[in-house]
Amino acid sequence: MSEMVVIIPAYNEERSVAQVIIGVQKAVPTADIVVINDGSQDRTAEEASRAGARILDHPYNMGYGAALQTGYKFALENGYRYLAQIDADGQHDPEYINELLAPILEGSADIVIGSRFLMDNGYRAPFAKRVGMLVFGALTSRIVGYHVTDPTSGFQALNRRAFCYCARDCYPTDFADADVLIMLHRAGLRIREVAVRMYPSLNRKSRYLNMYSIFTPAYYLFKMCLLMFVTLLRREQSVQEVVPEW
Amino acid sequence: MVTDQGIVMSPRQQAFALVASITLLILIIELVRRRKLREEYSWLWILTGIVILVLSVWYGALLFITRLIGAVTPVSTLFMFGILFLVVTNIYYSIKISTLTTQVKNLAQRLTILDSYMREIRKHQDTESSPVEDPGGDERGCRLVSSQDNGHTWKCEDQNL
Prior knowledge:
The complex is a heterodimer of chains A (246) and B (161).
Chain A: E1 4-10, H1 17-27, E2 32-37, H2 44-50, E3 54-57, H3 64-77, E4 82-85, H4 97-105, E5 111-115, H5 127-144, E6 156-159, H6 160-166, H7 178-186, E7 191-195, H8 217-233, H9 239-242
Parallel strand pairs in A: 1-2, 1-4, 2-3, 5-7
Antiparallel strand pairs in A: 4-6, 5-6
Helix pairs in contact in A: 3-6, 5-7, 5-8, 7-8
Chain B: H1 11-33, H2 39-57, H3 59-69, H4 74-129, E1 142-148, E2 151-156
Antiparallel strand pairs in B: 1-2
């Protein structure tokens, strides 16, 4: 069994999942690939299986965060040391997995986040999202002590210490945002961002893609303010308490 | 009945509060007896029933609380307690639901991973029982070439054997 696993959470991604798997196979041929099929109603599982991935089938749709966490738990149980996560809608370029993994492999970071804003992708977020990112990015940067540009990016690499911590109940079942970054930073995990290329999603119907359209900007603002506030009030267990062997 | 503030709680109101609280208590105890309601969820309801019962019977206590909280009539004190109880119950159930949601998520994730192991084992078993060509064959040159009715057929290239 490989030391590395690439997890791909997928919800109704039959059009793009196979293409993503092939891209990952080319980029990291030694890694095992696991698709977490989060209760899709289409042929996502079949397409992914045919492309050569191992399938973890959720019995019902549990959310993006829960799908990622299933991947973390699977990686934990099966003794993987490194993990990369990539979205199934084709917006992340698998070529960049190695760049995400490099700081993890050399031991300089526990979590590496692929940021679409560190290089010019021609990506323009909607106005409300841009304002939100600017405000919460600035707040988060101040708390964690490094410049956070893309806290919502799902293109990440983690070492065992990090995914062991995220496999606990403190991890959200929907979308990890700036509050989770703060929590992980306060737990003692080292987080870094690297520049990655991102494309528009291949699947316009993907519910994961439309995470912001389901929240009105006002609700998102309220939710983030509350989450960041309570995250700062909480006493989080440090990563040494949770993963003592590291 | 007349209070020192000149506020009346009619015997009819008192009787209604009494009947309502006793009915509530009987209903809750019956639901627990029939195992339709778990004991851990019943204590808040029983507590409310007892509080309303005590306040309806012990009018002095109701008047004292009414004065203490600055309510206009004893009836509004009873209503306020009812509403407060509903708020506390809702918060209690929200906490329970949050706990249950996490537990169901963890169970579903466990099921997902175990299901994937089971499918791997099945796949492995299928591969073992499916037609396998053994290029080496045995020492006589016989090899397994097909599988029929869950059995294997050995064929020898040298027909004399």
